[in-house]
């Protein structure tokens, strides 16, 4: 299992590594995104570093040895909840429990902070991610919205 670390402002230099993982994770789906939705999903290294430095989200990184192989970020949200605003894993590491370990850590943090649920939004083309979310206990809420020209839908897991 990977080691999951919560990043602090001292880890902001990992912005480029996180960007690399997100780019690798989403590049195969670029054709299914508009330019705006892709850049809002795969943030620049500078924006990621800034997010870590300012503590705008709880950013987690999955490591195998010294290699960063996955990432996820949580934000405080309405209704005493966390919003899983991003998650990705290096495709070379798919099937090795990276996503599951990140979700497990997110759930642990949510329970420690006495959150009622974790919400997320996703794109229908992300079938592997959706299967993982469902396996982990997330369900579709029936809500969807436009995200820079792409329809995304909401899922949540009650805690």
Biggest sheet layout? 7 strands, mixed
Count the beta strands: 7
Tell me the structural class. alpha+beta
CA radius of gyration is 15 Å
Q: Portion of residues in helices? A: 25-40%
User: Count of helices?
Assistant: 5
Beta-strand content bin: 25-35%
Query: In terms of per-residue confidence, which ranges show pLDDT below 50 for 5 or more consecutive residues?
Result: none
User: On the 0-100 scale, what is the average pLDDT?
Assistant: 96
Query: How would you describe the shape?
Result: globular
Please trace the helix and strand order, writing H or E for each element. EHHHEEEHEHEE
Oligomerization state = single chain
What distance separates the N and C termini?
23 Å
Strand order of the largest sheet: 1-2-3-4-5-7-6
Report on the architecture of this protein.
The protein is α+β, with helices and mostly antiparallel strands and 159 residues long. The chain contains five helices and seven strands; from the N terminus they run βαααβββαβαββ. The protein has helices at residues 15-26, 35-41, 45-54, 98-112, 127-135, and strands spanning 3-6, 58-64, 67-77, 81-89, 117-122, 139-147, 150-158. Strands 1-2-3-4-5-7-6 form a seven-stranded mixed beta sheet. Helix 4 links the parallel strand 4 (81-89) and strand 5. Helix 1 (15-26) packs across helix 3. It is globular. The two termini are 23 Å apart. The relative contact order is 0.17.
List keywords for this structure.
159 residues; alpha+beta; seven-stranded mixed beta sheet; 5 helices; globular
């Amino acid at each position: 299992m990977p080691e999951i670390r919560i990043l602090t402002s001292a880890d902001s230099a990992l912005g480029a590594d996180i960007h690399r993982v997100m780019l690798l994770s989403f590049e195969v789906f670029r054709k299914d995104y508009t330019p705006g939705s892709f850049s809002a999903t795969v943030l620049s290294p500078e924006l990621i570093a800034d997010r870590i430095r300012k503590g705008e989200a709880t950013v987690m990184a999955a490591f195998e040895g010294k290699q960063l192989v996955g990432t996820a970020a949580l934000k405080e949200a309405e209704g005493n909840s966390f919003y899983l605003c991003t998650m990705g894993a290096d495709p070379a590491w798919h099937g090795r429990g990276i996503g599951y370990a990140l979700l497990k850590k997110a759930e642990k943090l949510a329970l420690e902070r006495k959150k009622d649920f974790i919400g997320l939004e996703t794109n229908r083309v992300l079938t592997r991610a959706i299967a993982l979310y469902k396996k982990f206990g997330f369900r579709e809420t029936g809500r969807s919205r436009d995200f820079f020209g792409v329809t995304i839908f909401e899922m949540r897991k009650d805690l």
